[in-house]
């Protein structure tokens, strides 16, 4: 994290870091389905709530429709991503959070 950024900017930076980690893993393992989902919404166009919500919704759809393509570590990383998105959006009732916790 960069110390002079706001808390929100640091959270957005953390989202980018998580997505880059997933991108690297899915490229290395040639896991094309999750990679296609990620590339549909990342890199973020901007740090606004619409872009962040699109990322959350897309990753929720990935977990819902293609959970078999994810290993345990990746599922954990997606849960971390959901937590970070919830912090930014201030909303713990979105579909991504429900899927991550249940």
TrEMBL record:
It comes from the Bacteria. This is Uncharacterized protein. It comes from Caballeronia udeis.
